[in-house]
Amino acid sequence: MYLSLASQSILLLSFCLFGWALDLYFFHASKVKVFNILEINSKNRIKNSSYRAQTLTVSILLIIYSFFFNYLQNNASSVKEKRKFQLYMFALLVFFILIPSRRFFGNLRSSFLRTLGRVFNIFAICKTEFSDVVFSDILTSCSKVFADLANVFYIIYHSLKTSTTPGIEAELKRILGLENDSKSINHIQFQSPLVNPAVTCVPYLIRLKQCINDFICSTPSSIDRRRHLANAIKYFSSLPVIFLSAFQKDYYQSNNYNQDWFLHFLFYTWLFFAIFNSCYSFYWDITFDWGLEQSSDQNSRSDIKDKTDLPVFDTLSSSNNAVVYDGPFLLRKNLAATWTIKLSSHITLDSIPNAGFILGALEVLRRCIWILFRVEKEAC
Questions:
Q1: Interval 142-170: pLDDT, tens
Q2: Which of 79, 104, 171, 276 is most deeply buried (CB count within 10 A of its CB)?
Q3: Mean pLDDT over residues 112-131, rounded?
Q4: Does residue 312 belong to any structural domain of this protein?
Q5: Does a structural domain hold residue 313?
Q6: Which pLDDT belongs to residue 374?
Q7: How many domains does the chain contain in total?
């Protein structure tokens, strides 16, 4: 079944919500007080069981919603009708989120909007709450989705707009860096070397700002202060990967790779930052976010006598530790490379149907596993 870019984007966001719901149920089954750790109760005014159930229900409804509109798009009689269905899909979704009513999951929607307000408040200088850290990291896993949505919105605009003067339209495209893809009339995308990477970088800039805020609010000369600075470097190092890849894609279309030294320079610079960011992020997740090196240290938690008070993974028998910890370790190691490919727009996998969607789904899976270990680390 063909999945349009619009349906892929909504599906990936739905998978994120679905994975978050599964994590909540997993924590509940493991008797981990995740709502106290994230301080969700005091913000949402909603019962824990209701929050879990509503999150799972909304995610399933969104998945069905995406497939329904994808079916309508595939059976549309014209390109313009297809774009109208996409417009209706996004308009109804925005209306559902913003409708001022306590019905239709009102508490859950209010919680989501309040979290968005805190995360996108660029003027606030305060210590970042753990729930906002988790939410922002989820946004980084959806960063490429936001760039795809920007393309979809422009496609809809281009297909449904009224006719304009050719000279004005050409000048507008020149200024914004927009042009038609010669391969297909159905794929009209941003071709500017700045638009797509700028949208992709927004979640990373949010996390970078949070790390800087935590650095400013930390005690001078403390370990936490240095740790926040090191974490900021991790997110900052992802920016060259995104922008250099976009520049390569734009530059490659008008130059000969074998004869252009500057394109070689772009490639090897991108390769350096890609390897650095992947290795840095992998080390950070395993060592600091997950704390797996501490999980193997029997003395680090030997003072806890009641094993039922331990976080979820520490309650497992030692015979299962290899599966519980080494499995995500290997998965994180393998998915680090795939996500770098996903962020790099100059790397295409046209031979694999829906390759971008598959890579995005794998990143969602990695993020769901990351949340499990990150919350466990916070509970220790």
A1: 998 998 888 888 877 777 665 545 554 45
A2: 276
A3: 89
A4: no
A5: no
A6: 84
A7: 1
> According to the 3-state scheme, what is the secondary structure of the chain?
CCCCHHHHHHHHHHHHHHHHHHHHHHHHHCCCCHHHHHCHHHHHCCCHHHHHHHHHHHHHHHHHHHHHHHHHHHCCCCHHHHHHHHHHHHHHHHHHHHCCCCCCCHHHHHHHHHHHHHHCCCCCCCCCCHHHHHHHHHHHHCHHHHHHHHHHHHHHHHHHCCCCCHHHHHHHHHHHCEEECCCCCCCEEECCCCHHHHHHHHHHHHHHHHHHHHHHHCCCCCHHHHHHHHHHHHHHCHHHHHHHHHHHHHHHCCCCCCCCHHHHHHHHHHHHHHHHHHHHHHHHHHHHHCCHHHHCCCCCCCCCCCHHHCCHHHHCCHHHHHHHHHHHHHHHHHHHHHHHHHHCCCCCCCCCCCHHHHHHHHHHHHHHHHHHHHHHHHHC
- Average pLDDT (111-129) is 89
Q: Would 307 be classed as within a structural domain?
A: no
Does a structural domain hold residue 303? no
Predicted confidence (pLDDT) per residue in 262-277, tens digit: 777 888 888 898 889 8
| Domain hosting residue 174, numbered range | 5-292+318-379
What percent of the chain is predicted at pLDDT more than 70?
Answer: 68
pLDDT in tens, 48-90: 778 889 999 999 999 999 999 999 988 888 877 888 888 899 9
